[in-house]
Amino acid sequence: MSDEDSRRSLDDLDARIKRAREEGEAAAKGKGPILRGQASGFGMAFRIGVELVAALAVGVGIGLLLDRWLDTTPWFLVVFFFLGAAAGILNVYRAASGMGLAAGYSDEMNESSKSDKR
């Protein structure tokens, strides 16, 4: 391959890359934020559902195991069902309110640090 042919193919490749980037940016301007917002909402809804179901499943599982081991059917099942439900609701509250996003995260801390900078 000659230098001229390789140069021409590189220029062609560069033009195709620029065209693809421009088309991608144009598509992102029109539809990007809406789709990202919907995906974020679906993700949050899925997380909330999984948190609640997982907490209930763990609570019921522990209750069933303790009932079989101690032969106290259905007392531990009932107790741990409610404990699992409470844990699930607490996890859903934390997920929905944004608690636990990072170590030391607190809205009160953010507000006090903003007032300190003034």
Tell me the number of helical segments per DSSP (H or I, 4 or more residues long): 3
* Rg result: 27 Å
How many structural domains does the protein architecture include?
Answer: 1
Molecular shape: elongated
Are there runs of 5+ residues with pLDDT below 50, and where? none
Order of helices and strands: HHH
Largest sheet: none
Strand content: under 5%
For the termini, the CA-CA separation is 65 Å
Number of beta-strand segments: 0
Round the mean pLDDT to the nearest integer and report it. Answer: 80
- State the helical fraction: over 70%
Q: What do you see in this structure?
A:
The protein is mainly alpha-helical and 118 residues long. It is 86% helix and 0% strand. The radius of gyration is 27 Å and the shape is elongated. The N and C termini lie far apart (65 Å).
Features:
118 residues, mainly alpha, 3 helices, 0% strand, elongated
Topology at a glance:
Elements: H1 3-70, H2 75-97, H3 107-117
Give the structure's gist in a few sentences.
The protein is mainly α.
